Sequence to fold (259 residues):
Amino acid sequence: MYTQCPDCLTVFSLDAQMLALARGQVVCGHCQAHFDALASLNSQLPPEPFQQLPTPRTGQAPVIELAVYRPRPEQPVAAAHGPTSEDFSQLKFTPQFARAQPPRERRWPWVTMILVLLLLLGVQLAWADRDALIADPTTGGWLRSACATLNCQLPLVRDVRQLRLLARDVQAHPSVNGALLIGATMRNDAAFDQPYPVVVITLSDVNGKRIAMRRLSPAEYLGDTAQLRRGLPAGASTALLLEVKDPGQQAVAFDFGFE
Fold:
């Protein structure tokens, strides 16, 4: 059942037991106004939008005929002829009404929707931080095992700090005048596959002053497109062969870097 505060028009839900104990007099939990809940008592809400609940019709009190319980009167031991008409006139019928249970709300659709939204949020956060998750030894191992089972491929993660230069060599180009041929071997010490890095070659003179510098993208020193797409596997080594312009006899030292 529903009733409405006449001051702030707030609609409240209440049951028959609460109404009977209060004898219809209640206090609004919103504006603290005292009012008669029976004045606007309704069994159901009208279609929205509405401002006020309809006022119940007043009239002659209804006659209650459907009895659900009648207490059995105590009969005196000395009575030998059974109950008389006077005894029946003294009986009082007390109507008992079953308390209507409010319909239970179906909460599982909302719970399911909240769980789906939380799952989507977790997927978005994981995708935004995928490089850190793949590079992490624990979560990266789980992801690689899952991908191996599902036959999928994780995105390549770049961490040039775990690339090691194992060997390097520079010499005059055997077939191109005014050019140098630089060979190097690098290894991926990470536990995950990496994209091939940008190789930075710096040539210096005897005083350590930089004379020339060249940045080579992976596409410039790798001719195999499939190898470039797969990246450098974890723990694998690869040999690089680079051709650069000879800066002259002043260049006596050279350095490798990865970006």
About this structure: The beta strands are 2-4, 11-13, 25-27, 34-36, 163-172, 179-188, 199-204, 210-216, 237-245, 253-258. The domain at 160-258 is CATH 2.60.40 (Immunoglobulin-like). Residues 1 and 103 are 12 Å apart (CA to CA).
